[in-house]
Structure formats: structure tokens, C-alpha cells
């Protein structure tokens, strides 16, 4: 593939360095308009087998390639990607329904991911005593299958790809059928720099994920998605003792103390609730506000949320686009209906839209529903949020932790030392002090409890793509 052939109008699977079409195609839908997007090719069982064979063949050489050569390939890919950042921004707006600001943020975050991984090296420990030298090395695990979600298709695919290839693994990417385009293009671009079989991509139907997970010649699964699917992957992967990294769902609490600046904090909390229509794994899902400021804080949240402009992603005035897909919109509508049926109070009711097209929902805020209500217990993954009242610190920490999830949390307190003391008691992989979830490649993203196993990013994320080998050299 020459660089002149690289366009954003045709899409391919990539197997053994070859851009492949198919006999069968599907197409995505623009969430803002419900109009058909481009055709994308559906991988076959034969494509899977050839990709796995190619990856295993490539691994024999790539795993022993000096890390500085791997770094150089990644650096070349980065420089090429930078020239297409605007193309990826436009693509994300179309396939995800993201506003320009959000789409550009994701496209540019990929450059931060490149920069972060280019600085990493794989550690080696050497201990010597009177009788032996003990060397601990991290060796690449083998062929990885990356099963990626629809909400951040560029960033979450690249986080897996870069960690895999830097550590010496080969990787097969399976993008979500809701948002396949950006991952297909990322991997197509990579073929200019990496040997055939090192980085491949397969878009496909329902059989594809299970086929990769159960394949005996794939050695690790990296999955980002729901906890329910993560459990199935873990169960299937056990049959071949695959390594797994699972970044799963969350029900992230925000705890607001009475000493905060109400207007500014409420505005920030609202952003943490409704960014990308709440379709973020570490978005705020429950807001606990101290009783002393509960009503003014709730009022300030309603005021801030009412200013959000919902509309088509391409409209310059839009600050919140549509839901990404109809399935997720219906899921949120079920929670809205449950809230109404049970007679809970909407501080900010959802509004209807005149347009007959687009998967639109407006922000909605529920005023102090019961702790055991569906809107509190379940992950919404959409623009509806419960705000709850608290008075006792130990009690609110207990309530925040009373979930099977443990992905993220935020503590809002003008006393940063006190905030950190509270944060240490929260059972989650990430805790944000006086901020909503602003992740960075420099910090590992991982979950406690049913929010996942292992982790990605950070200084040690690449080690999750390695096995440990200890060599004992006797004198």
C-alpha cells in the first residue's frame, strides 16, 4: 500500500499486510442523522485463520526485534498519523456522533499515547549473590486479540496496539461493528511501517469475538466493554489459559463536601456526568451531595445542565451530540421510564425532540431517588444522573462503595488533604480529586471488583502484555 492510496472513503480488513475487501459488507449509521455511512467488509472464518497464522509467523521475528527498532517503527507511524489527525476527527464525528471538540480531543490524545509509549522501556532486574545471578525479564506473551468498544474507538484501540507492539507482541484488532471505521484506517496506515502480521484488523459479525477468544493460537485478550461480556470472555479464555486484560463497566460515585465553591463545582460535575452524553466508562454515574448544600448545589447542576446544547455533531453550537446507537438510547429510555413509573422526582426532566432522526436524548437529573433504585444501582451509560443527599462521612463512603463496580470515583473538597484521605477509602481503580475523570496515558486505567482485571496505560501497562521469565545463573 502506498501513501497515495490511503483515503478515508474506502475501508478494508488488514490480513498479513494486505488490505482486504470481502464478499459481504455492512455499513455504519451516522448517529446524528441516522443516514448510512460507508460500507465496511465483513471478515470470514478464513480471514480469522489467516490472520492468526500470520500473527504467529510474524511474532517469531518481531518478538526478537530490538526494542529500539520497535520504537523507531512506532515513531514513524506517529509522524504519519499526525498528518491525518483532521481526517480522524471528521471520521469520529460521523461514526460516534461526537462534537468537533470531543472528536478532535480523541484524535489528538492518540499523539499523547504515541509520545507516552515512545518513552517506555521494558525493565530488567539483576540480583547477584554468592551462588547465583538472578535475572528477571519480561518477555512478550505472543499474539494478542484486542476487542474494542464503540465509545472511544481510536484511543482505546491505540492504547492496546502500542503496548502490544512495543512489548514485542503481534496484535489483531476487532473494532466494534458500531464504529469500525477509525480502527480500520489506523491499522491500514500502520502497514506502511510494520512487517506483515504484526498489526492486523478484522471487522466482523457476532461470531468474530468468540472465535478470537477461543482460538488456541491467540495468547492474550485485551477487552474493553461491559462487565457481562467481560465475564463471558474470561470464562472462554480459561479453556486455553489465555492472559486477559479486562477494562469493564463502572458506577462511578462523586462525593461533594459542603466546603466547595457551589457554582464552579456543580458546573464541573455536570461536565463529568454528561460529557459525550454520559457514554464514558469513567463518567460520573452517581452524585452524593452533603445535605448542607444539597438544594443550592442541585439547583446549580440543573442550571449548568440546562445550558447544554443538544444537536447534530456537525453543528457549531452543539455541546452534546446524540447517543452513539439506538440500542443504547433505548437502554437509557428504560431507566427514564422506570424513574417515572416509580414516581421519583426529576430536578431536570428529559425533553422530547421534534426531529424524527438522530439518537438524541437531553440531560436529565433525578432528585434524591432511593439508594436501591435502578437509576442508582445500574450503570446508565447515558445522560441521566441521580443526585443523592448525605450527612455522615463514613456512611457516604459506604454507599459509594456499595456496588459490584470499582472503576472510578471523584472527591470534591476544598481541603485536598481530607479529600485524599477519603479517596484512599474508595474501592476503585482511579480516584480524581476535585476533577471529573480526566484520564492520561501516564496513569494506569484499571478496575477493582467487577470493573476489570489487569490494567492499561501508565508506566507498567506494557508489562500486562508480557510473561515474566526468571533466569538463575549458578556460578
TrEMBL record:
Q: Respond yes or no to whether keyword Repeat is given for this record.
A: no
Q: What class of enzyme is it?
A: oxidoreductase
Signal peptide coordinates? none
Q: Which UniProt keywords apply?
A: Oxidoreductase
Q: Which PROSITE patterns match?
A: ALDEHYDE_DEHYDR_CYS (PS00070), ALDEHYDE_DEHYDR_GLU (PS00687)
Residue ranges annotated for the Aldehyde dehydrogenase domain, each copy included: 29-470
Name the InterPro entries on file: Ald_DH/histidinol_DH, Ald_DH_C, Ald_DH_CS_CYS, Ald_DH_CS_GLU, Ald_DH_N, Aldehyde_DH_dom, LUC3-like
Q: Which GO terms describe its molecular function?
A: aldehyde dehydrogenase (NAD+) activity
Give the Enzyme Commission number: 1.2.1.3
Q: Which domain of life is it from?
A: Eukaryota
Catalytic activity entry? an aldehyde + NAD(+) + H2O = a carboxylate + NADH + 2 H(+)
Active site, per annotation:
247
> What protein family does this chain belong to?
Belongs to the aldehyde dehydrogenase family.
Protein name as it appears in the record:
aldehyde dehydrogenase (NAD(+))
Origin organism is: Penicillium cosmopolitanum
Amino acid at each position: 500500500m502506498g501513501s497515495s492510496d490511503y483515503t478515508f472513503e474506502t475501508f478494508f480488513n488488514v490480513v498479513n499486510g494486505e488490505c482486504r475487501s470481502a464478499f459481504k459488507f455492512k455499513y455504519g449509521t451516522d448517529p446524528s442523522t441516522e443516514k448510512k455511512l460507508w460500507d465496511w467488509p465483513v471478515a470470514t472464518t478464513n480471514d480469522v485463520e489467516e490472520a492468526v497464522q500470520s500473527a504467529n509467523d510474524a511474532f517469531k521475528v518481531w518478538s526478537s526485534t530490538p526494542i529500539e527498532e520497535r520504537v523507531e517503527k512506532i515513531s514513524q507511524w506517529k509522524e504519519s498519523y499526525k498528518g491525518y489527525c483532521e481526517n480522524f476527527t471528521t471520521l469520529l464525528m460521523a461514526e460516534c456522533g461526537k462534537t468537533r471538540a470531543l472528536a478532535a480531543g480523541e484524535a489528538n490524545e492518540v499523539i499523547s499515547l504515541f509520545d507516552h509509549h515512545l518513552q517506555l522501556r521494558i525493565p530488567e532486574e539483576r540480583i547477584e549473590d554468592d551462588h547465583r545471578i538472578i535475572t528477571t525479564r519480561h518477555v512478550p506473551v505472543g499474539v494478542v486479540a484486542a476487542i474494542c468498544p464503540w465509545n472511544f474507538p481510536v484511543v482505546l484501540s491505540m492504547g492496546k496496539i502500542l503496548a502490544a507492539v512495543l512489548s514485542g507482541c503481534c496484535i489483531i484488532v476487532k473494532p466494534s461493528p458500531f464504529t469500525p471505521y477509525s480502527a480500520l484506517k489506523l491499522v491500514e496506515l500502520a502497514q506502511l511501517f510494520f512487517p506483515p502480521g504484526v498489526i492486523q484488523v478484522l471487522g466482523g459479525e457476532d461470531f468474530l469475538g468468540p472465535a478470537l477468544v477461543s482460538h488456541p493460537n491467540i495468547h492474550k485478550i485485551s477487552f474493553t466493554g461491559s462487565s457481562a461480556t467481560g465475564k463471558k470472555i474470561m470464562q472462554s479464555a480459561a479453556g486455553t489459559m489465555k492472559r486477559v486484560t479486562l477494562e469493564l463497566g463502572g458506577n462511578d460515585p462523586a462525593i461533594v463536601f459542603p466546603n466547595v465553591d457551589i457554582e464552579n463545582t456543580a458546573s464541573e460535575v455536570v461536565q463529568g456526568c454528561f460529557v459525550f452524553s454520559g457514554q464514558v466508562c469513567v463518567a460520573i454515574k452517581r452524585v452524593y451531595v452533603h445535605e448542607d448544600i444539597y438544594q443550592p448545589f442541585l439547583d446549580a447542576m440543573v442550571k449548568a445542565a440546562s445550558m447544554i446544547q443538544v444537536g447534530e455533531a456537525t453543528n457549531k453550537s452543539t455541546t452534546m451530540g446524540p447517543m452513539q446507537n439506538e440500542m443504547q438510547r433505548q437502554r437509557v429510555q428504560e431507566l427514564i421510564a422506570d424513574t417515572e413509573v416509580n414516581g421519583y422526582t426529576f430536578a431536570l426532566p428529559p425533553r422530547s425532540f421534534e426531529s424524527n432522526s438522530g439518537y438524541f436524548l437531553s440531560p436529565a437529573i433525578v432528585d434524591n431517588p432511593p439508594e436501591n433504585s435502578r437509576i442508582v444501582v445500574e450503570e446508565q451509560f447515558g445522560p441521566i444522573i441521580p443526585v443523592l443527599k448525605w450527612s455522615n462521612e463514613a456512611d457516604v463512603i459506604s454507599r459509594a462503595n456499595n456496588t459490584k463496580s470499582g472503576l472510578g470515583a471523584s472527591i470534591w473538597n476544598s481541603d485536598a488533604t481530607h479529600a485524599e484521605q477519603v479517596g484512599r477509602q474508595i474501592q476503585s481503580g482511579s480516584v480524581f480529586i476535585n476533577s471529573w475523570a480526566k484520564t492520561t496515558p501516564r496513569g494506569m486505567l484499571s478496575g477493582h471488583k467487577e470493573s476489570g482485571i489487569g490494567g492499561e496505560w501508565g508506566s507498567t501497562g506494557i508489562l500486562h502484555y508480557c510473561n515474566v521469565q526468571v533466569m538463575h545463573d549458578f556460578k
